[in-house]
Amino acid sequence: MAGFSILLFIATVVTVVSGIRDDFLRLPSENVEGTRWAVLVAGSKDYYNYRHQADVCHAYQILRKGGLKDENIIVFMYDDIAYNESNPHPGVIINNPHGRDVYKGVPKDYVGEEINVENFLAVLLANKSALTGGSGKVLDTGPNDHIFIYYTDHGGAGVLGMPSKPYLFASELNDALKKKHASGTYKSIVFYVDACEAGSMFRGLLPEDYNIYVMAASDVGEGSWSTYCPFQDPSLPPEYDVCLGDLYSIAWMEDCDVQCEVVRERTIQALLLGGTHVVEFGDIGLSNHSLFEYMGTDPANDNRTFVGKKSLLPLSQRDADLIHFWEKFRRATKGSPRKAEAEKQLREVMSHRMHIDSSVKHIGKLLFGVEKGQKMLNSVRPAGLPIVDDWDCLKTMVRTFETHCGSLSQYGMKHMRSFANLCNAGIQKEQMVEASSQACVSIPDNPWSSLHNGFSA
Ligand SMILES: *[C@@H]1O[C@H](CO)[C@@H](O)[C@H](O)[C@H]1NC(C)=O
Ligand SMILES: *[C@@H]1O[C@H](CO)[C@@H](O)[C@H](O)[C@H]1NC(C)=O
Ligand SMILES: *[C@@H]1O[C@H](CO)[C@@H](O)[C@H](O)[C@H]1NC(C)=O
Ligand SMILES: *[C@@H]1O[C@H](CO)[C@@H](O)[C@H](O)[C@H]1NC(C)=O
């Protein structure tokens, strides 16, 4: 009997101690119960998308300085930038024209092809058996824990990009959040999404009572913005020919770099006041929480005070790759092989864009008639409704298009709403097959339209 109680006592003590972990020793004002966790995702690859991985590395540095531990920060980053042959400073990634290296020390939990929908959802749901490759770190959270998720990449209506196809669909993301909620393994989640049409991932889908607060850089039908790009002010160091950051991401992170004293008092929402356009979803009440609860604070910044935000210049995310190709072309010596190659790249990317745009338009006309085609493709559902109800139909439409017309590629994500509208109008797969094969007699032969990267849906 006595032995049993002692065992019980020890078990209780062990549970209490391991539950408290290191967050125990804090000033009362800093007392945050539970552990802070973070998942950081750069959803793209390739040097012309430099900025997404730069954003993620920068976010990691902020969280580390804020006191989060590596074991609680899970990083998804393709890792083809730091040592890319185009990087003028091998092993270094910057996120600001005058910024320091943000690459050093970033854990490589999921890199290359390990960044895909399955692994991302497995991490979210702490389902290790569903993982393929990677460090095996998952959101192994408890009921008092705070989770910060940050995603930066290209997006389209109802989808976020992943470097390995397919895209992450809104239906899958919200199903996973629903499961996470049902598992009772978090106190609250703050989710920052920097991508075109990011709001479409949540609008009409995310319930308000999940203790999940989402702040998105753009709503359905809206673009998001890159910044620190060539041709902009402040000018980049001359050796750079790519955008170094994204507007919304830079807005919250540079605030955090300089003003972390303020972070302690400031709320999640206030951090972004100062001109950056955002949209909110889920449990809006959480926006009153202190950012400190999610990101911690850097003691070195304790005495800083809030200064007004400087304005950043936007460049459409969808055009950031064009700027890179143009810069590469402009800088190359006349008559050099590099110039010829850059010109070829620029032509290819332009012609692929035109091919995708005209094919989608043509399909619209074939399905709805010359008069109504464009109107049907662009139609907008009433506020509060998701972009589509039948997500399987949406995937089928995308696949059918890509089978006949080639890969949408990151630019083509802008047409996701058109595909959703085909479903909303009751178009059947057979009709889409016929229209696509009529619109695209052959798949153009260039790297932008190849099918070897797999289907987007
Ligand atoms: C560098 O980026 C290009 C695309 O811009 C990509 O094709 C290449 O694989 C990358 N190189 C490395 C070493 O990752
Ligand atoms: C974890 O993933 C595996 C493989 O995808 C799946 O069969 C299993 O149901 C998942 N477990 C949970 C708890 O979701
Ligand atoms: C945040 O708190 C303030 C004051 O405490 C309150 O007036 C406001 O309604 C709250 N906002 C939300 C969205 O809960
Ligand atoms: C902040 O100010 C206090 C009081 O002036 C001082 O004791 C402390 O060392 C300062 N902290 C930092 C990090 O500069």
TrEMBL record:
Q: Which keywords does UniProt give here? A: Disulfide bond, Glycoprotein, Hydrolase, Protease, Signal, Thiol protease
Q: What is the top-level taxon of the source organism? A: Eukaryota
Gene3D superfamilies recorded for this chain?
1.10.132.130, 3.40.50.1460
The family database entries (InterPro entries) matched by this protein are listed as: AE, Legum_prodom, Legumain_prodom_sf, Peptidase_C13
Q: Does the keyword Disulfide bond apply?
A: yes
Q: Name a single GO cellular component.
A: vacuole
GO BP annotations of the record are: proteolysis involved in protein catabolic process; vacuolar protein processing
Leader sequence segment: 1-19
Give the positions the UniProt entry annotates as the active site. Answer: H154, C196 (nucleophile)
Per its UniProt record, what Pfam families does this chain match?
A: Legum_prodom (PF20985), Peptidase_C13 (PF01650)
Domain Legumain prodomain: residue ranges: 344-440
The Swiss-Prot or TrEMBL record annotates one GO molecular function as: cysteine-type endopeptidase activity
- Establish whether keyword Acetylation is in the entry: no
Entry similarity comment? Belongs to the peptidase C13 family.
What this protein is called in its record is Legumain prodomain domain-containing protein
